[in-house]
């Protein structure tokens, strides 16, 4: 065919061909030549045959190896890439393309600055230069890749220097495993361990409270019964019976309080709902109208009217009610109570702040006891020291937390952190 074209079309040729030798062997040759003319007629074809059989066999082997390598890395559940000395990608596998949502053609020749957030790209380039300069691999390093669209992914990345046939460094091979799901599970496990630790501490604390309170009531009953047994005076006996009745009422109240705490920490059937905080505050405020009017309370509900959080209805009502009544109980004797409720967002999560102008609390002295059961810090006959303990248990049961800021004679602010993202 090439000779025909050379003769009839005067076309020079330079082709790879397979020839059969005298021994019947097939060998690859490089054939180059052209037609020689004389008086407008082709008189001969001049050319050469160069034996390139070994070269072709080597190239074929390399190509087969490349195909094998490509098939291998394309089926690995890992992101694999090869970079040159300028950190330009010269090879990418299927997983890398799928992660970056681009074809191999779109990725070849690109650097991380073309594909990732600039800060992430800078860190990656520094790692590349370290591997190329020191010839030491980076193995199993946890990294975070942030794409141009802001999507972040956790990877376990290794980078290994790549050498050419002369032993000189020519780039690097990178292998990254997506560990985002593992990191999420680790966070969940860590949170579970923390929650278990907290619950264990609460259980121990609750056991101490139950033991202490029931022992106190038992001792009181025992003493009153001894007095009754030894007393002959009828009026004194009636007085002791009255005290026994009061002690019985106190015991029942204590048991009811303890039962509430048990319900909060064991009831897993209560479901969270999307609740409007502003409307809930208004509802609680209306239920306490007479109480607030009697104490000349001013309430400033500055919560966003459209703000919704995911919460258990009964708990949210109880939390707001206890914080409002607590502010009134500990009002300053020289001024009418003023209560302000506001909300703000932190990482898309809501913080409800309830501030008052009351007596305030000495946090240095009582800071670690504020949310304890039956802990009171002022001479208030209406204070029982259970409301804040209940509030903390309810908000923690929903995965949130409560903190306090206070200054003596100026007032107190309670901050309720809801653990669900708001809408």
From TrEMBL:
Instruction: Identify the enzyme class.
Output: transferase
Recorded catalytic activity of this chain's protein: ATP + protein L-histidine = ADP + protein N-phospho-L-histidine
Q: Output the InterPro entries linked to this UniProt entry.
A: HATPase_C_sf, HATPase_dom, His_kinase_dom, PAC, PAS, PAS-assoc_C, PAS-like_dom_sf, PAS_4
Where's the PAS domain? 65-119
Question: Which Pfam families does this chain map to?
Answer: HATPase_c, PAS_4
Per UniProt, residues of the PAC domain are: 13-64, 139-191
SUPFAM superfamilies from the UniProt entry: ATPase domain of HSP90 chaperone/DNA topoisomerase II/histidine kinase, PYP-like sensor domain (PAS domain)
Alphabetically ordered keywords of this record: Kinase, Phosphoprotein, Transferase
Query: Per the record's keyword annotation, is Disulfide bond included, yes or no?
Result: no
An example Gene Ontology molecular-function term: protein histidine kinase activity
Family annotation (Gene3D superfamilies)? Histidine kinase-like ATPase, C-terminal domain, PAS domain
The chain positions of domain Histidine kinase read: 209-422
EC number annotated for this UniProt entry:
2.7.13.3
Q: Which PANTHER family match?
A: PAC DOMAIN-CONTAINING PROTEIN (PTHR43304:SF1), PHYTOCHROME-LIKE PROTEIN CPH1 (PTHR43304)
Q: What is this protein called?
A: histidine kinase
């Amino acid at each position: 065919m090439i000779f025909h074209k050379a003769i009839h079309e005067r076309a020079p040729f330079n082709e790879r061909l397979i020839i059969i030798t005298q021994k019947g062997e097939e060998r690859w040759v490089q054939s180059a030549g052209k037609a020689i003319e004389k008086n407008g007629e082709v008189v001969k074809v001049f050319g050469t045959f160069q034996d390139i059989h070994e070269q072709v066999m080597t190239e074929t082997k390399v190509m087969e190896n490349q195909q094998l390598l490509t098939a291998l890395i394309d089926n690995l559940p890992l992101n694999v890439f090869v970079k040159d000395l300028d950190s330009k990608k010269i090879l990418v596998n299927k997983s890398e393309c799928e992660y970056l949502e681009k074809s191999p053609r779109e990725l070849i020749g690109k650097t991380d600055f073309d594909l990732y957030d600039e800060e992430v790209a800078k860190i990656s380039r520094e790692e590349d230069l370290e591997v190329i300069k020191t010839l030491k691999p980076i193995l199993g390093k946890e990294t975070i890749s942030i794409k141009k669209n802001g999507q972040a992914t956790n990877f376990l990345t290794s980078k290994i220097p790549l050498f050419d046939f002369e032993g000189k460094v020519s780039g690097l091979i990178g292998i990254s495993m997506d560990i985002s799901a593992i990191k999420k599970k680790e966070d969940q496990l860590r949170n579970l361990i923390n929650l278990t630790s907290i619950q264990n501490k609460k259980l121990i604390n609750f056991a101490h409270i139950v033991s202490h309170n029931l022992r106190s009531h038992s001792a009181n009953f025992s003493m009153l019964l001894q007095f009754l047994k030894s007393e002959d005076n009828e009026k004194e006996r009636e007085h002791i019976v009255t005290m026994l009745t009061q002690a019985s009422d106190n015991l029942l109240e204590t048991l009811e309080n303890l039962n509430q705490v048990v319900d909060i920490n064991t009831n897993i059937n209560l479901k969270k709902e999307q609740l409007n905080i502003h409307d809930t505050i208004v509802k609680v405020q209306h239920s306490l109208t007479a109480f607030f009017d009697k104490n000349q309370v001013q309430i400033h509900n500055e919560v966003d009217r459209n703000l919704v959080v995911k919460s258990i209805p009964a708990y949210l009502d109880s939390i707001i009610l206890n914080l409002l009544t607590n502010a009134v109980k500990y009002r300053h004797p020289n001024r009418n109570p003023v209560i302000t409720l506001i909300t703000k967002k932190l990482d898309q999560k809501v913080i409800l702040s309830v501030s008052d102008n009351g007596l305030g609390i000495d946090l240095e002295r009582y800071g670690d006891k504020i949310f304890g059961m039956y802990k009171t810090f002022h001479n208030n006959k209406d204070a029982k020291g259970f409301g804040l303990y209940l509030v903390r248990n309810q908000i923690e049961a929903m995965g949130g937390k409560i903190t306090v800021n206070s200054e003596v004679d100026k007032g107190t602010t309670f901050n309720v952190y809801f653990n669900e993202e708001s809408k």
